[in-house]
Design a protein that fits this description.
single chain; 283 residues; alpha/beta; three-stranded mixed sheet; 13 helices
């Protein structure tokens, strides 16, 4: 059995589950959705319909456990020998999505993530996703299989996952998926990449996306074991002699990233300046 595991927080995901139910008809599949302390009444009301859908289980937990802990809990609750983790704000890119996962029995399988279909050049997150998309073909991802690991869309054998699990010491946003990928690499477990992409439809407003990015960078700064693998940490070390200059431009980079026509290069520069400020204890 394949267990599809979807943690959700304040997000209606009925459309995603309905798509999966349609694709799962006739397949040995269960779909398990867990509310991670959702407080939004509209999302709760919408998602409650999942309980009556075929092949579905719905668990409305009132306590917020966090991104790592809720995924670990879902893995324990799963009945299948394979687990397919999906974020609550994605949508399969085509009708063969589940079929492709069912046909691939590798220990760890990653399907890829694409930007939302609608052009949203006013969205910093959409620009970020769109820029990354050119590297997201299965062949390209396979060249560096652990670097492109993401919890948004991947399958793993249950016994393997339970032997590693997500690091529950990471209670804030960011890098729990990258750390899991590094753990796989260190154990010699290859990530097999396939073309079974999902669209990422959850486009946070630009200020919120920037706030989450800052939190992710703070998480990275607290994880010395992750820093040798993180591009931004390596760049900050390589350019440390320029840190006073780069930091001085942080307000400028931030304003361009949050402008009416957000600039992706400015967003990347702001990330570097913010991480350098963390290193100097200025935040």
């Amino acid at each position: 059995m394949l267990s599809i595991l979807i943690p959700t927080f304040n997000t209606p995901c009925v459309s995603l589950v309905s798509n999966l139910v349609r694709q799962a008809e006739g397949l040995d599949v269960e779909i398990v959705v867990a509310e991670d302390g959702t407080t939004d009444a509209t999302a709760l009301a919408a998602n409650s319909a999942i309980e009556g859908m075929p092949q579905c289980r719905y668990m409305p937990f009132k306590e917020n456990r966090g991104r790592a802990a809720i995924r670990n809990l879902l893995a324990h609750e799963a009945r299948g020998e394979r687990l397919l983790f999906l974020d609550d704000d994605v949508m399969p890119a085509d009708e063969d999505f589940l079929k492709r996962y069912m046909e691939c029995d590798a220990p760890v399988v990653a399907g890829g993530v694409m930007a939302a279909k609608d052009n949203r050049s006013d969205s910093l997150r959409w620009l970020y996703d769109k820029a990354a998309e050119k590297h997201m073909g299965a062949e390209q991802r396979q060249r560096a299989p652990h670097r492109h690991f993401s919890t948004a869309n991947f399958a793993v054998k249950r016994d393997l996952f339970l032997g590693i699990r997500f690091n529950e010491d990471i209670t804030e946003y960011g890098y729990e998926d990258a750390l899991f990928g590094i753990e796989l690499q260190q154990r010699g477990v290859t990530v097999h990449h396939i073309n079974a992409a999902v669209f990422h439809n959850g486009l946070d407003p630009n200020p919120l996306f920037l706030k989450k990015t800052e939190q992710a960078l703070r998480t990275l700064h607290s994880l010395p074991q992750m820093q040798p693998y993180a591009t931004i940490a390596r760049t900050a070390r390589r350019l440390h002699f320029l840190s006073p200059l780069i930091i001085s431009f942080a307000p400028f980079f931030r304003s361009l990233a949050l402008s009416r026509r957000p600039q992706l290069w400015a967003f990347q520069a702001y990330k570097l300046s913010y991480y350098m400020m963390l290193g100097k204890g200025e935040i």
